[in-house]
C-alpha cells in the first residue's frame, strides 16, 4: 500500500512539475496561432487518426481482393514535387535575412521574441511549411497500401510519419523557437535526396539498375539522429535557454528513431541477412 501511495505521489508531482515548467516555456502568438491547422488542435489529430485507420485497417481490407492500383504517373509527380518543396524549405532559411546571424549568435541563449519578432515570425512561417510537408509525407504510406506494397508499411514507417506531424504541430503551436532548426534543416536536405531517389526509382527497371545508393539514405538518416542527439545534449550541458520540456521530448524521440532506423538498416543490409536470403 505504501509503495502504491509513493508511486501515485511521485507521478502526481512529476505531472505538476512538468505542467508548471511547460506553462513558463509556452509561447503564444496571435498571428502564428491563427495559421491554418494551428488552432484548434483537433484537425491535426484527426488527420493522424484517419491516416492510422486507413493504413492499418481500412486500406488493407479495401485492397485485399483487388489488384494493385497503377499510380506511376501520380507517384512521379508526387516525388518531384517533394524534391522541389524540400529544396524550397532549405532556400527559405538561407535566403531569410539575418537567419544565419541569429542562429549563430542566439542558438544557445535566445533573445526576447519581441526584439527579433519579424525574423522569428518569418522563421515560424518556414516552420509551418515544414509542418505541412509532414502531412504531405503521409501520402507515402497511402501509395504503398494502394499498390499493395504492404511489406513497406512497417512500425518504423508508420510511427515516423505519424509522430512527425504531431511533433511539428506541437513545436510551432506552443514553443515557436529555433530548437528544431538543426534537425529540420538536416531532414529537408535528406528528403531532397530521398525523394530524388524515389522519383528515379519510379521511372522503372531501366533506371533502377543504376540506383546503387539506396542503403546510404538510411545511413544518412541514422547519422541525422546522432547529430541531433549530440546537439540536444550539448544544449543541456551548456545550460542553454531552450524549452526543457520539448527538448527532453526530442531527445527521447530521437533515441526511438535512432533505434528503429538502426534495426531497419541491420535487418535489411547486414551481410548475415543477405546470406540468409540467398
Kindly summarize this structure in a few lines.
The chain is built from 12 helices and no strands. It is mainly alpha-helical and 278 residues long. The chain has one domain.
Mean pLDDT value: 87
Which spans have pLDDT < 50 for at least 5 consecutive residues?
none
Rg over alpha carbons: 21 Å
Q: Calculate the terminal CA-CA distance, rounded to whole Å.
A: 57 Å
Q: Domains counted in the coordinates: how many?
A: 1
Helix content: over 70%
Question: Count the strands?
Answer: 0
**Oligomerization category of the chains in this entry:** single chain
Largest sheet: none
Count up the helices.
12
Strand content: under 5%
Features:
12 helices, globular, mainly alpha, 76% helix
Structure commentary:
- The chain has 278 residues and is mostly helical.
- It has one domain.
- 76% of the residues lie in helices and 0% in strands.
- 21% of the residues are buried.
- It is built from 12 helices and no strands.
- The protein is globular.
Provide the fold topology.
Layout: H1 2-25, H2 42-63, H3 72-95, H4 99-106, H5 117-137, H6 139-146, H7 155-175, H8 181-201, H9 205-208, H10 214-237, H11 244-269, H12 271-277
Amino acid at each position: 500500500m505504501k509503495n502504491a501511495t509513493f508511486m501515485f505521489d511521485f507521478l502526481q508531482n512529476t505531472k505538476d512539475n512538468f505542467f508548471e515548467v511547460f506553462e513558463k516555456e509556452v509561447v503564444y502568438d496571435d498571428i502564428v496561432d491563427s495559421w491554418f491547422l494551428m488552432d484548434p488542435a483537433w484537425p491535426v489529430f484527426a488527420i493522424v487518426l484517419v491516416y492510422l485507420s486507413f493504413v492499418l485497417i481500412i486500406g488493407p481490407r479495401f485492397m485485399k481482393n483487388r489488384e494493385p492500383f497503377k499510380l506511376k504517373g501520380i507517384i512521379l509527380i508526387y516525388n518531384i514535387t517533394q524534391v522541389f518543396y524540400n529544396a524550397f524549405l532549405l532556400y527559405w532559411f538561407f535566403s531569410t535575412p539575418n537567419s544565419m546571424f541569429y542562429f549563430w549568435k542566439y542558438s544557445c541563449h535566445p533573445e526576447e521574441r519581441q526584439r527579433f519578432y519579424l525574423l522569428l515570425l518569418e522563421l515560424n512561417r518556414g516552420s509551418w511549411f515544414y509542418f505541412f510537408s509532414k502531412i504531405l509525407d503521409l501520402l507515402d504510406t497511402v501509395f504503398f497500401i494502394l499498390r499493395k506494397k504492404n511489406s513497406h508499411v512497417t512500425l518504423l514507417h508508420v510511427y515516423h510519419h505519424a509522430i512527425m506531424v504531431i511533433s511539428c504541430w506541437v513545436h510551432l503551436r506552443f514553443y515557436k523557437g529555433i530548437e528544431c532548426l538543426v534537425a529540420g534543416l538536416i531532414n529537408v536536405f535528406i528528403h531532397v535526396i530521398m525523394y530524388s531517389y524515389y522519383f528515379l526509382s519510379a521511372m522503372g527497371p531501366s533506371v533502377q539498375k543504376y540506383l546503387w545508393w539506396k542503403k546510404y539514405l538510411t545511413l544518412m538518416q541514422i547519422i541525422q539522429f546522432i547529430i541531433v542527439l549530440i546537439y540536444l545534449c550539448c544544449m543541456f550541458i551548456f545550460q542553454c535557454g531552450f524549452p526543457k520540456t520539448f527538448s527532453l521530448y526530442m531527445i527521447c524521440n530521437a533515441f526511438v528513431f535512432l533505434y528503429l532506423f538502426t534495426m531497419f538498416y541491420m535487418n535489411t543490409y547486414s551481410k548475415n541477412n543477405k546470406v540468409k536470403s540467398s
